Amino acid sequence: MESWVSVPKVELHAHLNGSIRDSTLLELARTLGEKGTIVFSEVEHVIRKNDRSLKEVFKLFDLIHILTTDHSTLTRITKEVVEDFASENVIYLELRTTPKKNDSIEMTKRSYMDAVIKGLRAITAVDVDFGCHDMESKGSTNLQPINDVNNLSPRKKIYVRLLLSIDRRESTASAMETVKLALEMQELGVVGIDLSGNPVIGEWVTFLPALVFAREQGFRITLHCGEVEICLTSNIMTETISSVDVHHFADLYKEKHPLVLCTDDSGVFSTSLSKEYSLAASSFGIGKEEMLRLAKSAVEFIFSGEEVKRELREIFDSTMKELRL
Ligand code: IMP
């Protein structure tokens, strides 16, 4: 596991509210329990449970949303989630989240996303480049490691880009509102649109106008529809496959089909990107050099431009050189 923590990695499929630390989720549940909003003893086992069916996962998301959908909590979880990815050497993260409205706390889709951006700005433990053009002290676009004056070890740096998700429960108008919000927030690191949510709910035709509009506006689109972003633990835990050795990863990898290892919901499925790399390497007998090549190949599928890709390729090349691969 350790060796996978230290190698650079690219995460392209992570849902914000699915990536919350267990400890934070329990703390939030306890606080809402004390306020009488929920009954803690009724939800504790749902949070602590280790494997759940797809149906149970979506029930858990409803609970998570009750716990997290207020501005200050969103700011906190965004900060923590990015810090967690950075701490395991994820150097580029595409973080997706569904902008939500909640009239009772005056939350609009825009204010939801502003709280997320506030979380990105609040990170001090690592340098964050979220492609924001009004950055003052944060996120220099220079990816050379920055040395602290008193500390010669280089500070960690992570690129973060945002994808706005449309939930399959939404209407055409609501989906369109999300795409318009993405347009408004392009200068704040929003690079694409995602369609996600419970796969047995909703119909394609509902979302088509918004997705077509997003494409016309130049957005990249990612759909939960047999995508080859591979999330091994998520697939095992939700029983999409019976065990890892029968996972389609093996066939796709053998055929050199483009694929990227991702976490999906690192909090909900108690995983990390390093664990996913470790699992793939041990389950499919892939050596370190090949795994690093696989990690590097993810750069070609990011939704950012050539400049960022070039910087990321350089990081992978220098790691390979250091490891004499
Ligand atoms: P959020 O968008 O930040 O609230 O992250 C949680 C949401 O992501 C869930 O409510 C779902 O809509 C979506 N999501 C998370 N995991 C999955 C998945 O495996 N399939 C489809 N949608 C998912």
TrEMBL record:
Catalytic activity from the UniProt record: N(6)-methyl-AMP + H2O + H(+) = IMP + methylamine
Organism from which the protein derives: Punica granatum (Pomegranate)
SUPFAM superfamilies: Metallo-dependent hydrolases
Family: Belongs to the metallo-dependent hydrolases superfamily. Adenosine and AMP deaminases family.
Keywords: Hydrolase, Metal-binding, Nucleotide metabolism, Zinc
Database matches in PANTHER family: ADENOSINE DEAMINASE, ADENOSINE DEAMINASE-LIKE PROTEIN
Record domain Adenosine deaminase: where: 8-228
Keyword flag Isomerase: no
Keyword Zinc set for record: yes
UniProt protein name: Adenosine deaminase domain-containing protein
Cofactor requirements of the protein: Zn(2+)
Pfam family, one: A_deaminase
Molecular function per GO: adenosine deaminase activity; metal ion binding
